[in-house]
Amino acid sequence: MSRRTKIVHFEFKLLSSRHAPLKSDTSNALCVDWTQMNNFVRSKGKRLLRAKKVANFRLWLLLLLLAPLGLCCAAQNIEETELFIPGHDGINTYRIPSIVSTRNGTVLVFCEGRRDRNEDGTPTHLVLKRSLDNRGSRKMTWQPLQILLTSKAGEAYMNPVPIVDERDGTIFLLVNPYFQPYKDVPVHIWLMKSTDDGATWSSPTDITTGTGLKELGPGIGIQMRSGRLVAPVYDGVIFSDDHGKTWKSGGKISDVYSESQVVELVDGSLLLNVRQGVGHRAVGISTDGGQTWSKPRNDMALSDPTEYKGCQGSLIRYSRKGAGNSKNRLLFSNPSDPNHRLNMTVRISYDEGRTWPVAKMIKEGPGGYSSMTVLPDGSIGLVYESGSFRTISFVRFTLEWITGGTDRETRMGN
Fold this sequence. Notes:
This protein is mainly beta. The protein has 2 domains: 22-75, no CATH class; 81-402, Neuraminidase (6 Propeller). It contains 5 helices and 26 strands. The protein has helices at 34-44, 46-49, 54-75, 208-211, 399-402, and strands at 22-24, 30-32, 79-84, 93-101, 107-114, 124-131, 146-149, 156-164, 171-178, 190-194, 205-206, 222-223, 229-233, 236-240, 248-249, 260-264, 270-274, 279-286, 297-304, 314-319, 329-335, 342-349, 358-366, 370-374, 380-386, 391-397. The protein has a 4-stranded antiparallel β-sheet with strand order 3-26-25-24. A 4-stranded antiparallel β-sheet has the order 4-5-6-7, with no helix packed on it. The longest helix is centred in the first third of the chain and has 22 residues, at 54-75. The chain is globular and about 55 Å long. The termini are far apart. The model is unreliable at 1-55 and 57-75 (pLDDT under 50).
């Protein structure tokens, strides 16, 4: 290489080579040949060179070329792992994920392990994977699969809904046990709990006496600022005011009956977001902790694929204004294609769910049920059904990545 020719490699794909002096090598790196650059400048940049020296012009152009490199690197700032893979651990299909972060920073991912085939109601284990190293920039690692409930006589343990009690860190896990012959109807609710970040679990207890027969979530439950534990069900919520000792059913929301997720708004009311299968989601508001609900309205900003009468979605709070946060933020995820379960997308609302001005596609292609959590370092963890809807993938990204760098705040609390 001559003294006059310096090659600078940029690790992103060359999009266009129409303008020499840009060229690509065999590794798809973008190169700048300064000999050709001089010719380019002399022929195309005479007006600019009247006011600037060649060296300054080179520096300016180099910085200009580095700008898309920074954007490209930011766009690649996403971690993805196939967490539950069909055929692994003797399980044919993994579906219906849910994810929570514990008070100590452990991340728990639950899902249905459909032992023999993909269909609803077939023999289904309730399974879990945990991650213990969730702070900083290094890639998260995961503990071996745990089977929390084993299908022994063909039963299906479905619709996992975990809730973290911030008072003492207890994790409650609600699940629907379906026995054969399977029917998609309201059934009993079982409750399990862990006091050691999911390493061990209690035997299940039946809480149906207090709640009635219900179909859970699926997804996650929440703890209100009052301390009330709230779990979404198809027709509203169930709740506990004594840290999981007893459970009751709230009032029924009218006109909609399907998979739902719930979040507490800054004014203390609850927002229930419901699958409809008519092209968009429905939302209802409760101002009394879930005892009664407003008439649901259609949220036209949140698409819901018409295939299979819609798809479950995830709704969480990222931040509440105050306590070191400058904004209220809600996050919502679901497949954004209007017709099919495709293109898993995350949206942000800054006005408590009234509008959703920011949307970022996580991955083009198949995407089904999903669940989100805020990780200990303020990044966001999402699990979703991917591939042939038999795999559960984990994705980790930042608020900055979703917004293209316009929202950079690190979450301090909610």
